[in-house]
Amino acid sequence: MDNNDILEEILKSKKSLYYEIKLRLEESKFGIDMISPFLNKLKPNSNILEIVSSPYLLLSQITENHPKLNINGIEPIGDGFELFDRILKILKRKQKKINLFKGKFEDYNEKKKFDLIFSINVLDHVENWKVYFDFLEKFLSKDGTALIYCPNYGFPYDSHFKIPMFINKKVTYKLFKTKIDKIEKQNNWIGLWKSVNCVNFKQVKKYCNSINLNVLNHPEINTFLLKRLDVDEEFRKRQNIFRLLGELLRKTGLLGVIYKIQWFHNYLPFMFLEIRK
Q1: Could you tell me which residues are beta bridge partners of residue 270?
Q2: Nearest to residue 264, comparing CAs of 213, 202, 205?
Q3: Using one digit for the tens of pLDDT, what is the confidence trace for 68-109?
Q4: Closest CA to 87 of 21, 9, 186
Q5: 170 near 198, Cβ under 8 Å?
Q6: Which of 130, 153, 233, 259 is deepest in the core (most CB within 10 A)?
């Protein structure tokens, strides 16, 4: 069963979830494009682990594209993501090739090491994001790589609710309480704002240095996202605010200049991190 079949199955059985699943399918396609260059370099029987952001969808695609890899996933069902639990129950998929741990990554206690660990739009919802990097330090193999994609709150904007960030999270909530509460209720995202931790690239660099992890940011992910606005209608509806300024910077060549100066990485809207020991 491929991802298109999954979408049709959901449509027949639970129409209220159709739009949500469609968004997750688009995110899984986006994820494949980001991590495929790293997957293609892995040797057969390499261990990979996704700290999951879209239950089974991205991992299912990887099992089809890379059948010789040992595929593992962690599915943390937290505030604002209870819908994922419903999705898992509806799918009822017997993916024998996927070893899925349903719980928080903090409770994961397997003894194996992983050659590739990745997550998409997860780090910004981890209550104590530093523990996430402690997890990487523990479970990455000697030559392993971790990939992390998420918003960078060094750029004062929240992409979930499409609001500017003023001073801090508490002040921002007071200013936009009505909008935040309305969006959470409309989309069944109760608790999503609470889960946002406002992590930024500068904080990540500092902490990784303290635990001897090497971190490399790929700023070109922001160009990739600008191109995605041209071809992904749903993504364009959600994040079109970046289009005008981004296109201006790209066409003038300033975006390339910004990428070359490390200081600017602290303030780009999104980060795509490559972590190694």
Answers
A1: 151
A2: 202
A3: 999 999 987 555 455 555 655 655 554 557 888 878 899 998
A4: 21
A5: no
A6: 153
